[in-house]
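I keep forgetting this: the sequence line spells out the residues, with the fold written below as integer tokens. I include a record here:
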Amino acid sequence: MRIKLFILASLIYILLLSIFTFKLNLGNYTLSLGANAFDLPVVLWLILPVLIFFIFTLLHMSFYSFLKYINFKNFSKDAQKFAIFIEDLLLEKDSKIKFKTKEFQNSAELVISLKKAQKAQNFAKINEILDILEKLHKGEYLDLKKFKLNQDNPLSILNEKNLISTDIHYAFNKIKGKDESKNDLDVLAFNCLLEKGEYAQIKTIKIQKNSGQIINLIKRFKAGNLDLNAAEFEVLLSHSNLNEKEYLEVAKMSVKLLNPDAILGIFTKIKNEKNEALRAHLYLLAEFGLMEDLREQIKDEAKFSDFKAFLILREKNIKIDLNQLIQ
């Protein structure tokens, strides 16, 4: 209740009570306290307690109104200082601003905690979320159901990316049966499968692989963390769109991956269908020492000067690095 309204209502009540008791004409009443006696009209005996109660109540309300005013004044000043505090924090300055109100002290502590991603006292839920954020950004998959996040929430998306990256079977199921990548999660799942999955899973995926992905699979085969047989190797290259340089790169990597007859047979078939694989085929002829076959295929072609140079040097028994010569 506002003080002014309280004063007005109280005075009206005291006035009405005084008039009512005065009309009753109740006379006087004597109150004896030991040797003292107080003889006063009854109307005063009724009004004095109410008046005393009114005065003390008014003092009580005034005191707390004063405290409220002081607190509001401090709150207003803290609100003005808080903007400067934020500026200092963003500028990485050691802010010397102190707040008088508990609310702004807690707010400042919380803002510092969020800015530095450090835990703060008295904010258990915030600290829990900071722990979760740290784990998410480290690549961990977490159960976030209790936070009721939407599927398009950045944290939900990050969490699913972590699951895709850490669970190759989930990545496989994510894109199984799809003809193309429809979003970033599909792209990530496809790339993770190509980087970590077994070829039995990879070959069932309908999404088209680009030349870089084909070469990376061959690199995995060479490194020993992907199993391919000759038939799978041939299908992988046959369904690719490698350029001349990329076919040559694959041929150089493949020399020791399969036996010479198998690798030559594969590249012979491919070069008959795709002219881009011709230099790779010629490289394998040179690598496996099939000089007559090599000479026969390049005799009328001026563009194969590097292979002709190889034959001349080989005839003179000059040691050369074939990989450096044929680029």
